Structure formats: structure tokens, C-alpha cells
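input
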Amino acid sequence: MKVEIWSDVTCTHCYTAKHKFENALAQFKDNDKIDVVWKSFELAPGFKTDATKYLPEFLATLQGISLKQTTDMINHLTNVVKEVGLVYHLDKAIPANSFNAHRVSHLAKSRHLQSEAEERLFKAYFTEGQNIDDIPTLIRLATEIGLDAAEVKNMLESTRYADEVRQDIDEARQAGVTSIPYFVFNEKTSVSGARETGAYLEILEKTFSQWQLEGQKPVSVISDGQSCKIGEDCI
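output
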């Protein structure tokens, strides 16, 4: 059964949702029959990366608030994600355009390494303060998960997988998706926003049962959870 996840590697709630969903998948007895596909989504289309700035300063300017207010928000989120086992160092995160990172994810998908690529890119952005729009950085991150450096370099220096990224984004737009994470289970059941592990497990069990029954009528379930929206800050 296919599970599609629209996400952006600069989306705070997408990273926590990834870990909660994977925890649910680990508990699901038929997890070997689940095909997880990561789909591209841009929270800031056309955004120009500026490696001289860090996220606190960027958010303060974007929202028109003080640096202290931004720091307080970041500290709160950092404490929240610890419950999922994640470590955020948003004080050194570099706001970056994610289009090239999405292209790397598509290349990784062709080599059956997409989940590994998503995890590595998330960690690079949220924990390590790496520029996920920098080509040498992306090449190094990709080789760490087993991709070929020359192939990644050639891809990034071309337009390869750009159409695939745009197609994912168009699919989301046509479905009316404006915030992420956005899950679609078995092309029928959609879940908007991050959920808890137990909720993901329940949805997996329900949709898998429906998938096993031929002729099952489509079921659509929309759940609102924590999410990041286009053009808004993601804290």
C-alpha cells in the first residue's frame, strides 16, 4: 500500500511528523507491505538563500518582532521536539531555498534511498546548520547515504528532476494543499498536519484493511494537526 507524504526539508513539523510516522510504521505488523513515497512541496517558492544570515535573525525581520521574541519561540520548539528524540539547533539554521534538496530526494528515490535522503537533509538543516541549497554540501550529504558523488554533481548542475519536483508541487496545488506535512494513504485517505504516533498507527491499520478489500469505496479523512503553510514562518 502506498503512503505519499508532501513535505519540505525546512518544515519543522514535517521532521517531527516523519519520526512519529516511522515509529507507528515500526509497530505496524504489515510494514513490509507499505511503500512510502516522499513528495516535494515548497514553503517559500523562489526564496533566495542567504548563507550570511541565521534563522533567528531571518524570522525577526520577517515577523517584525524582536530577536529575543524569536529566540524564545525557537527555544520552546527545541524543547518540544526533544520528546520525539530530535535535536534542533535553529540558532544556526541557514534559511535556504529547498528546490535542489528536493531534486536530490528524487534522485535518491530512483536508487531506493529516499527515506534516508529525507532524514539526512532534515538533520543537516535543523541540527547541523548546513546550507541545503549549496551544491558541494548536497553532494557530500548524498554520498553519505550511498549515492554516487559524480551522479549527484551531474544532476545538480543540470535540470534533471526539476520537472518531477514541479509535478509534485502541482499535484498538491490541484488538491488544494497549502500546508504540510500532508499524508495520503492508499490514494484515498488524506491527513493534514502532524499527528501523534498512535494516530498514525490507527490510520495505517484502517487504510491497510481497506486496501486489502477489493472494491472498497474511497474514504477521505482530513485531520488538522500542526503544520507549516506557504509564505508563513514555521515555528
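quick obs: The chain has nine helices and six strands.
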